[in-house]
DNA sequence: GTAACTGCAAAATATTTGCATCCTT
DNA sequence: AAGGATGCAAATATTTTGCAGTTAC
């Protein structure tokens, strides 16, 4: 586990620090997307609020995690698949938000359907956010 | 124009006030989605910041406007189609966010494709957010 | 040793709440 | 007249910035 996390940091030319290891492990351990508040709450050692902001931003910039647009506009983060690289995200999977427990899932296996936009528009990326009830809450 | 706006308010048992008329007209006039900041900036009479918050919330509750989940997690609002009613939104259209000018469009004519989720999940609503470049910016 | 990272303080920004006043019906 | 809507002040919450001290390499 820790090795994987260290590898990720090395691959992205980031120095190995407690903070980054801890936060990245949280993502590894979690099958769900995490908010800034989740991270503050879940991490055993207390990480400074500001450092968490900066770490998350760094990870997003490096393509290690991605943000998820949610219906209630809270910011959620989740690990990217390998295809992501700096400045270029390819998270073309479906996100599912459970209205009961508030959990956000990345449904990695389900690919995004083609969406037809007007001819004059250029599509870079498509996000699909499904709201409903997850398997644990029904 | 004003008549339409007044009708909308009446249909929703909301009293007719300058504030609501003004904000609702902004949405009518705009082909794009608006943020709280947009509304503060665009409205001719200065509306109190707090009142705008409350008005937007009221409109969302009543199903007059809906929020749009954006990739950068700013909150955008746009008029709902008639099918929306209190507590129940049916905005199953595609939202398009232009990375150049930052404009959010509701592509009303383009319906949401079916998304297959795991059998254990119940789908209530699907949002599709397309990022790219709009016709004006290419 | 040096550059990058962190934590604290504080600034800037965004959102919510309470309450007295005003406006719509 | 009565209830809802507004605006102001202020409380909270969220995010950003500056900087000095610490850590990774």
Question: What descriptors fit this protein?
Answer:
3-stranded antiparallel beta sheet; homodimer; globular; 138 residues; 3-stranded mixed beta sheet; alpha+beta; DNA-binding; Arc Repressor Mutant, subunit A
Structure characterization notes:
The structure is a homodimer of 138-residue chains. Chain A has 138 residues and is an alpha+beta fold. Chain A has one domain: Arc Repressor Mutant, subunit A, CATH 1.10.10.10. Helices cover 31% and strands 28% of the residues of chain A. Chain A has a three-stranded antiparallel beta sheet. In chain A, strands 5-4-6 form a three-stranded mixed beta sheet, with no helix packed on it. In chain A, strand 4 and strand 5 form a beta hairpin. Strand 6 of chain A pairs antiparallel with strand 6 of chain B. Chain B binds a DNA duplex (25 and 25 nucleotides) through helix 2 and helix 4.
